[in-house]
Structures are given as structure tokens and as C-alpha cells.
């Protein structure tokens, strides 16, 4: 008996099922909604960096994890160099050159989808598990920093000049990615600041604090300092905060670490240098030359007293009483703060003008970042302070001290009349002071 031809209803049903199956297979390989179409950076996620052929399950998992950026092998200038600002010397390396191998990093925080907000409220271990489920891993903190600094090792992902509008802080409602097109590194990694803090795979190895993990990115109450690529935060790896998320990396792990040991015995915050040697005095004088500060005709000057000031761990500055005297006239004093780096010296703090007397400076046990001292001129007397902030010094002094005060033997400056870096006038607006690259003094 011959077979009956299929009924039109059965044939239509079969065609519909086949079309649905084809559609599902196509969607299995489509990018997440709202994500950019895979370009060269995303395609690199299935290259040799992830050590899996395109058809392998691991490659398929990584390929469905959203857009990625390939960070080429190169040199990271980690942390912030001595002499630059803002800087937190107890938390970041002093501009150390570290070579890193190639790796990949998600373009956005997990789930790495421009149409979805970052996932937050997870522990470090949970973040690791979610990355591993995609065939990836948590980034190390130095990998994160290199992805942020870009090929030019900029202070911020968008360059060296702070821009409050580039990565607006995510305080309050979580901002939308689309409103932050400029918040992207030179490599093309996005939303590294102004959104969420991000877990890294790195342990906190700074000082004597143990058992903590490193967070990168996020935002802070001092954006020009806390939103730098080198800024960090310590966190309990078992914590799960509403403003902490993560992003994933791929490729071989770069083993380089940030290790900043604490001194075995903490030195005093302020100590008199009893007998400064000629090498030290020579460098202090070089700082005045670099600042174009010179004596008036017929005036002789010398560093009368020198103190070593340690306002924070891993930072040492010089507080000096610089005395000038004209033959037959009364002497004057200019209190100074000088930074000594390996290859540079900088005058970073001074009063607007000289005074007749400067009494011994002091610091409070609970406030090593503030040096206080009494100054006098005639019947005027008052307290002045040098206040340390993010590797800069703010000067606070009585209003009766005026620029250009001559007394009998002034110290004059050939520099323009604008305040020197570190004075109260220069530091009154921290974000403006930090908006341009730090001055780099010449000379040893």
C-alpha cells in the first residue's frame, strides 16, 4: 500500500519547529543585549591568550561573556612617583616599572553588559566563582592598574589632568554607562571609576594589616586623589557591600605583586637633625635654586635648623628654619618644607613671607600630618602650620604675614609673584591644584 502524503497541518508544524531550533542556535552565539558587537578586542578572547581553540567549550564560554579588551604585553609604571601628586605613599608603589604579559579584561564590570548595571553585594570568593564559570578569573590589582592607565601610563584613565565630568562619582543612584563615554582607558576598558569598587585577586600586602584583599576603582570623597588608576582600598574578602562589584580577566596570570612593608620600628614623626651633613645641606640649597628663591644683595643665608618630618608611613620630608641676615641689620627666618626624592628635590611649603622668629615645631601624637610652630614679628605673634595632604603641603599662617615683607634683611625670589606650590593660596582648591601634572624639579 502506498504511503499517504503528509497532511498540510503536519507539514506546517514541522517547518515551524525547524525554524525555532535554527533561531535558538543562532541566539546561543549572539552578544548580550545592549553589548557592542564583537570586534578585534572581543575576538582576542578566544585566541591563544585563553589557550583554547574556538570550538572548545572553554572558548565558547569566554566568547559569550560579553565584550573584552586584549591588553598587550608591556611595561606598567605602577603607583605614583616621588615628587608627583596626589600620592599615598603608604598604599602605592613609587612609580616602579613592572613588565606584564598579555591578558584580556572585560570591557565593563560583571555581568559585562552595557545594558545591565554592575552586579554588587558579592564576596571575593563568589566573584572568583562567577568568573571561573565563564572560563575566566579575577584580575590581579596590577593587571587592573595597567588596563586603567593605558599605553601611556596616565594618572587617570583619560589622561594626567583630572576631569570631574569624565567619570562622575556613582554616589547615590548608579549612573548609566551611556552617559560616561569619556570614562574609558587608552586600551578601551570602560567604567573603571565612578561606578563600583572592584574585587581583585590580590591580597593586601601593605604594612602590618593582614587578611584583607585589594579593591580597585570605585569612587571616593576626594575624587582627584581616590579616582586615580593607582588608588586602592583594603577590604575583608568575606564582606559583600552594595557598592562593590568585580570584572573578569583571561590569559596567564601575571604574578607581580604590590608589597610595601612596614618599618620594624616606627621612627618619630618629627625629629631634629642634630648635625646635618654637607651632602644634605647641598641638596636643600638645590631645592631653593630649583624654586628660583635667592638672597637679596648683601644678604647671607643658611639653614639654621633642620627636622625630619614623617607625616605618613613611607614618606619623609624636611622642615627647615632658613635664616637670612644683612650686615648691620636684623635677621629674618623663612620656615620651609622640602621633599627629597632619589633624583629630584622640591620646595613644597613656605610662608608668604619671612618672620622675625620661628619657635621649635611640634606634632601631636595623633596627628603626625600637621606640623605646628609659633612665629613672631615685632608685636605680632601667632601659630602657623604645615599640613600634609596626598603628598602635598598646605600652609596655614597668620594673616599679618604678607608676601614681600622686607624687615631688615628679606629673602627675595626671582620667581613670579604667584604662590609657590604647597602654600595656602596654591592649595586652597585641591582639585584645581591636582588638575595638572605635578612640577618636576630638576637637579639632584
- Give the neighbour order of strands across the main sheet: 11-13-14-15-16
Distance between the termini: 105 Å
Radius of gyration, rounded? 29 Å
In DSSP terms, counting alpha (H) and pi (I) runs of 4 or more, how many helices? 9
- Which strand-content bin applies to the residues? 25-35%
CATH architectural label of the largest domain: Alpha-Beta Complex
3D shape: elongated
Number of strands: 22
Instruction: Report the mean per-residue pLDDT as an integer.
Output: 80
Give the helix/strand class: alpha+beta
Helix content: 10-25%
Number of domains: 2
Low confidence ranges: 1-63, 405-444
CATH class of the largest domain: Alpha Beta
CATH superfamily of the largest domain: paralog of FGE (formylglycine-generating enzyme)
Oligomerization category of the chains in this entry: single chain
CATH topology of the largest domain: paralog of FGE (formylglycine-generating enzyme)
Question: How does the major sheet shape up?
Answer: 5 strands, antiparallel
Amino acid at each position: 500500500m502506498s504511503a499517504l502524503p503528509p497532511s498540510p497541518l503536519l507539514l506546517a508544524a514541522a517547518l515551524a519547529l525547524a525554524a525555532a531550533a535554527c533561531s535558538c542556535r543562532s541566539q546561543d552565539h549572539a552578544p548580550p543585549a545592549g553589548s557592542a558587537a564583537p570586534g578585534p578586542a572581543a575576538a582576542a578572547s578566544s585566541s591563544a591568550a585563553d589557550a583554547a581553540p574556538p570550538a572548545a567549550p572553554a572558548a565558547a564560554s569566554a566568547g559569550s561573556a560579553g565584550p573584552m579588551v586584549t591588553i598587550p604585553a608591556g611595561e606598567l609604571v605602577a603607583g605614583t612617583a616621588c615628587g608627583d601628586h596626589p600620592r599615598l605613599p603608604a598604599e602605592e608603589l613609587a612609580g616602579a616599572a613592572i613588565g606584564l604579559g598579555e591578558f584580556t579584561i572585560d570591557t565593563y564590570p560583571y555581568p559585562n553588559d552595557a545594558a545591565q548595571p554592575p552586579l554588587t553585594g558579592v564576596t571575593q570568593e563568589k566573584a572568583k566563582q562567577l568568573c571561573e564559570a565563564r572560563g575566566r578569573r579575577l584580575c590581579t590589582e596590577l593587571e587592573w592598574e595597567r588596563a586603567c592607565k593605558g599605553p601611556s601610563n596616565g594618572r587617570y584613565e583619560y589622561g594626567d589632568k583630572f576631569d570631574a565630568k569624565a567619570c562622575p562619582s556613582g554616589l547615590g543612584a548608579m549612573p548609566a554607562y551611556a552617559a560616561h563615554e569619556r570614562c574609558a582607558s587608552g586600551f578601551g576598558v570602560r567604567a573603571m571609576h565612578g561606578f563600583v569598587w572592584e574585587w581583585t585577586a590580590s591580597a593586601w600586602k601593605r604594612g602590618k594589616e593582614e587578611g584583607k584583599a585589594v579593591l580597585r576603582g570605585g569612587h571616593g570623597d576626594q575624587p582627584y586623589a581616590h579616582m586615580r588608576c593607582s588608588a586602592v582600598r583594603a577590604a575583608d574578602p568575606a564582606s559583600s557591600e552594595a557598592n562593590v562589584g568585580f570584572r573578569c580577566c583571561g590569559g596567564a596570570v601575571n604574578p607581580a605583586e604590590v608589597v610595601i612593608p612596614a618599618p620594624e620600628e616606627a621612627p618619630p614623626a618629627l625629629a631634629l637633625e642634630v648635625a646635618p651633613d654637607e651632602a644634605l645641606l647641598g641638596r636643600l640649597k638645590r631645592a631653593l635654586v630649583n624654586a628660583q628663591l635667592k638672597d637679596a644683595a648683601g644678604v647671607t643665608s643658611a639653614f639654621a635648623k633642620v627636622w625630619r618630618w614623617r607625616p605618613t608611613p613611607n614618606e619623609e620630608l624636611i622642615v627647615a628654619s632658613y635664616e637670612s641676615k644683612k650686615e648691620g641689620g636684623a635677621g629674618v627666618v623663612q620656615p620651609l618644607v622640602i621633599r627629597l626624592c632619589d633624583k629630584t628635590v622640591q620646595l613644597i611649603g613656605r610662608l608668604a613671607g619671612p618672620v622675625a622668629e620661628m619657635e621649635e615645631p611640634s606634632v601631636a601624637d595623633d596627628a603626625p600630618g600637621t606640623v605646628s610652630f609659633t612665629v613672631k614679628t615685632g608685636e605680632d605673634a601667632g601659630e602657623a602650620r604645615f599640613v600634609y595632604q596626598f603628598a602635598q603641603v598646605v600652609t596655614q599662617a597668620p594673616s599679618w604675614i604678607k608676601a614681600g615683607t622686607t624687615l631688615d634683611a628679606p629673602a627675595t625670589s626671582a620667581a613670579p609673584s604667584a604662590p609657590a606650590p604647597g602654600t595656602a593660596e596654591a592649595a586652597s582648591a585641591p582639585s584645581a591644584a591636582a588638575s595638572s601634572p605635578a612640577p618636576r624639579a630638576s637637579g639632584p
